[in-house]
Amino acid sequence: NVFTRFNAIIGVLWVIMLFVAPIQDSLFGFVILANTGIGIIQEWRAKKTLDSLALIGEVRPTVRRDGKPVGISTSEIVLDDVIEIGPGDKAVVDGVCVEADGLEIDESLLTGEADPVVKQPGDQVMSGSFVVAGGGAFRATKVGREAYAAQLAEEASRFTLVQSELRSGISTILKYVTWMMVPTAIGLILSQLLAKDNDLDDSIARTVGGIVPMVPEGLVLLTSVAFAIGVVRLGRKQCLVQELPAIEGLARVDTVCLDKTGTLTEGGMDVTDLRVLDGADERHVRAVLGALGASDPRPNASLQAIIDTYPDDGSAGAWRNTRSLPFSSARKYSGATFDEGDGAAGTWLLGAPDVLLPEDDPALAETGRLNEQGLRVLLLARAARDLDDPEVAEGVEPTALVVLEQRLRPDAADTLRYFADQDVRAKVISGDNAVSVGAVAAKLGLSGATVDARRLPAEREEMAGALDEGTVFGRVTPQQKRDMVAALQSRGHTVAMTGDGVNDVLALKDADIGVAMGSGSEATRAVAQIVLLNNSFATLPSVVAEGRRVIGNITRVATLFLVKTVYSVLLAILVVCSQVE
InterPro entries annotated for this entry (predicted)? Predict the structure, then answer.
């Protein structure tokens, strides 16, 4: 904002005028303060907003000190501290699991993989991950800047400027103006000293007064004001612009890379179908699902979707839950035993069909077809054994298949359609499995090949060719996301990258425009030029429209200022020539 070509030119002329002329002749220099202040104030406001988001999301982990659990700030954690974690807790440092009671951790912000990972003692726990089920403790092995998430953030913290064609064009004009100003200034001052016989101070003041109009001050200031107005307008739509030229940058992109998790999908799941098996009573099945949901105090995403769809409304009668078995990714099912009111006890299981059913069961074939469409399938079955029996899953009576899908953002399809209408290509790149990502993309109307990124070539030119052919990419690592952005840029594309996880940080930083979700990790919000505070993907068309409005306005008035510059140069040359004669 301070060290620019414009500020250098006007600043030098301003300082000269302060020494040789009255202060009122130096008022043109205040355009430096206005132009610089607009950029600084906007970036300060953006930083203040991000700091408030970080404060709201500040985590106080529970650490064992002197055998007692104590809540402390993240900065107070030291090596070998034992940190207790439970459902909803965030790992703020790297460590090794020392205790695990059904511990399952969501690493989607690090890897993009939507499914939780089961942790056992000895397994690595990475900073930036969340506990979704169970509990446990881990010993800190890397803290502060050594932690995985902090290292990614530090690698992305190098300062870069948003490429702005408007500002680059103005800078080019100023460069040529500078070259014209030097000989013109020499000619003017010599003509004043020799022909007019003025004193030195008066000659310098007249010379500066003659060459200042050559600088398109109004165009530079108008550009900053137009950007600032655009930022304010977008701020009312819960869109935070951290760098003024980012508005223009997004309006010029021709390729947008989208992360699936958090951008195209929300965190939860939805029940799309209930397929009753073997003539079971659907009303009874719904009642059982409602009772199962009510029996688990800490439901995972799948069970929460079932609870939302089939709430426990008492239709199961006087059923009373006598024992519950929470879901575990290790055994892949949950269960509960109910006293059904007439003295009979019923044990029900809900889990993966391939675990609860024999290999030749026809329901497995149906499950496979649904899985190929990117859907998740759970089996509801009645068990003949007690819930605490290790073989409770053997010989169950299948009752229904519950079909679930990842919850799509309601605005995602319309936004993708908008980009397609604007000739902007969309590429979905995700750490999740390719089948799941492809299914989500298909539902949103994206056509094109689905590619497993593990098969992508490492060489940049070959990767660029594969990216031109494919649309959806799964199993993409954080480094691959970065390489994919670079490969697209090598083909001359202007690339925007959206994301919310730590795994997106490097790609966000290298993209021409980085867009982060307000609910995403602190690192992504810090490196992105645009932050969607309302987490609404539908805000992006507004940013594009605002950018094009700014570009159009500046382009229309630029001719006026450039004509003034040309006439100022010609007039100065004529003055020099006339004085010489």
Answer: ATPase_P-typ_cyto_dom_N, ATPase_P-typ_P_site, ATPase_P-typ_TM_dom_sf, ATPase_P-typ_transduc_dom_A_sf, ATPase_P-type_domA, HAD-like_sf, HAD_sf, P_typ_ATPase
